[in-house]
Amino acid sequence: MDDRVLQSIRKHLQQPETWERIRGYLQLVSEKLTVTIGEAAQLFDFTENQLRDWEERGLLRPLRSRPNTGQRRYPPTELEKLAIIRDLINAGYPPGAIPLNIAELWHSLGPASFNGGGNAGAGAGGQAAAASVPLDRRVAQTDSALLWRYFASQALHHALLLLCEDLSRSHAAILLPRHAPDDGRLGQPRLPEELARLGESLIGWLSHGRSLHLFLEAAPAFEYPSDFRVQPLLAEGETWPADPTLLVVPRQMHSLNLQRPVVHLVRRLLAPLYACAAQWTTYFAPDLRNWLYPARAFPRGIDPSDTVLNGLMDLIIALGGQTPAGDDRWHCCCLMMPEDPAAPPGQQVLMVMACSRNSPHRAGQSRIFPNESHVYFRALRCPYLLYRPHLAIRDSAGLSQWPEHFGGGGSAVAIPIGCQSGPALGVLYVFAMTQEAFSEDDLRLLRLMGLIVEDLLLLYRARLDAMQGLEQLVKAPEVVNDSFINFLSENEFIRDLEILLAHLQQESALAGDGAVRAGAEANHERQGERLSTAVSKGSPSAVDPGAAELLYLFPLREAGELETLSIIALDIDNQSQIVRRYGELALRNLTQAIGQRIQRQLVDCRLYHIYGGRFYLLLKNISLERARQIAQTLRQALRRPYRVELLQQSVWQLEPPETSVELLDVSVRLGVTLYLRTKLIELLQRYAAAPTSTLAEVRSLIVGDLDQALNLGQEEGGDCVISWDPQAEDRGPHVRRFIRLASPNGL
User: Fold this and answer.
1) Kind of pairing, strands 332-338 and 426-432?
2) What residues does the GGDEF domain cover (predicted)?
3) How far apart are CA 327 and CA 306, in angstroms?
4) Residues 345 and 417 in one domain
C-alpha cells in the first residue's frame, strides 16, 4: 500500500470529528451481540456482496456456525470495523485502500474501543491517554453534559405530553435528526423502514408509564416497522415544517394535538437542542463513567456554581430569541427562593439561587428584603403568572443596580414555582430592557420552563430528604423513621418473646417429661391460688390506682424462672377518621405522643411499637389483676387532648412548621392476656413437630390472641379494656375467651 495513502488514513482517523462519527455508529454495537450478514449490511448501508468480498480479501472475519458453510454472524469487533470502513468510504477512500489491520490502526491512534476491546498496546497507550483527564476538569465537563441531558429529557417529555393526547395505553416518540434530509421530502410522512437513512438522531421515547427514554442513535430502526407510522411535526393548516422533527406513534393512534399554539411551543422548546447538535455526541453518548448524581442543599449550603440551574436560566434567555441587531430580547433571568420558607409571608427574604450571565445578582449571595410592591414578592403568594408590560420603579426596586432598568422602562414576568400543591418554592423572574417584550407565546414557553425548573427543585428536595439520617442508619438499621427510635420495634418484640419461649423449651427438655409434669402441677396450684384472690366471681372490674400514679414494673429480663407472662396490647381508637380529616402525618405524630406518655407513665417496662397506633407491653411474673390495673390506668391517663403537627419539617426549612391541631377526645382500647408457665409449655409441646418453627407457631398464637382482644374492643366502641377470662373454659385447642372490664368508678 502507498505510504501516502496510509498516512492520509491515519490523519483522517485522528480527527475529533471522525471519532464522534464512528462513536455514533458504534452505539449500535452496545445492544447487539452478533448480527446476520443482512442486518450488518443494513446497519451500515452496504450490500451483502460487498461484505462477502471484504471477507474473502481478509478485511472482515465473521463467525461461522460451520466452517465455510455456516451462517455468517458479525460480533461487535467486526461491526466496529464496518463503522470505520463506512466512515472512510464516506470520506472518499476506496475500499481497496483500506488496510487489513484497520482495527489495530484505529486503536493505536488513541480512541478507546467502544466495546472495551483492543490489543495490549492500545490499552497501555490510548486507554491511559483517555483516562488521564484531571479529576476536577472531568467533573466540570460532566456538569456541562448534565445540563443538556436534563433539559433534553424534560423538553422531549413535555413535548410528547403536549402533542399526544392519550398515552394511557400507548407509547410515542419524537425524533430530532442531526441533519435535515436533502431528499425534498421534509414535509411528507416517511416509511418506518427509512428511518435509518436519516443518520444520527436524538430520540425521546415515552413509554406506557410516561417514563421517557432519551438516547442518541446513529441509524434509528425498528424491529417491527409495520407497527408504527412516522410523520413530520406539522401544525394544522401547514404544508411545510419549520424543522426536521419527526413524530413516531403507533399506527392505530390518531389523537394528536397539532394546534398551531402547541406546535409552535414545541418548536421553540426544541430549538436549543438543534442549536447544540454539534455537541450531541459529547452530551448524550452512553458513557456511564461520567454519571453525576445532582443534589443541592437549599437554602443552606448553597452552591452558586450549580451548572444545571444556572444553565437553565441561560437557556431561558436563549429561548427568547434575538433582536434584528443581534441582541438578546430578554436581558436577565433569576430564580429566587425564600431564605426561610417557614417565615411569615410578609417577612420572607428572597435569595437568588440561580441567575443568567447578565444578571445584576450573584447566585447564592444576593438577598432581596421584603417589599410587597416588588412584583416577585407578589408572585410568591399569587396563584397567577404576573406580567408587567410597562415596568414601574416600584415593581422591581430590588434590581436598582441597573441604571438603564429605570431609564427607558422595561417589562418583566414573575412566575410562582410549585404553588399547585402548597406554598410556592420560589419565583422565576425574567426581565427585558424593552417594554411589551413578552407575547402570549412567550408566556406559554416561560410557564413550561417554570415546570422544568420546578421538577428539578423537587428532585433536589427529594434527594436531600432521602439522604437524612445516614448516621442513624448505621446505628439502628431497623429504624426507618427516626422519630420512633426511642420505642422498641415489632422485630424486638418477636425476638424477646421467642427468647423466653426458647428458655422454657430448653428447661422442659432438660427436666424430662415427669419432672415437667410435676413442676407444672405445682406451678398450676400456686397460680390458681393467686388468680383466685385476684379475680372476683361477679362482673370483672379493676381497682383504680389513680390515673396520675407512676407504675413501677418488673423488668422483662429479671432473675428467676418465668412463672407468668402478661401482655398488654394498646391501639388508638378512630384512626381512620383522624387520617381522613387531618392526614397520615397527624396520626403518626399522635402515635408518637401517646407512646411518649406511656413511657412517662410506666417506669422500667418494655414498650414495643408494632405498627400504626398499636403498642405492646411485655410483663413478666405479675398477676392478671395487676396487668388489668395497669391497663385501666393507661386507658384513663391517655384519654386526653393532644396537640400534633400536621406538616413535616423539610430539609429546606430553618425552623419547624407551626401548623398544628388539637385533637380532642382521643381514646385507646387495650387488650390484656396472661399465660401460665404450664400453658406455654403445653403449647410448645403441641407444636413441637410443626413443619415450620415451634417458636414461630406459638408466637403467632399469642399475637392472634392480642388481635382478637383489640378487635373485640373496637366492636365495643373503643375506650375500654378487654381481658382474658381465666374462669371460662377454652373453646378449642387454643381459643381464649375475652370479656370487657367494667370501668372503675364509672370512668
Assistant:
1) antiparallel
2) 563-726
3) 26
4) yes
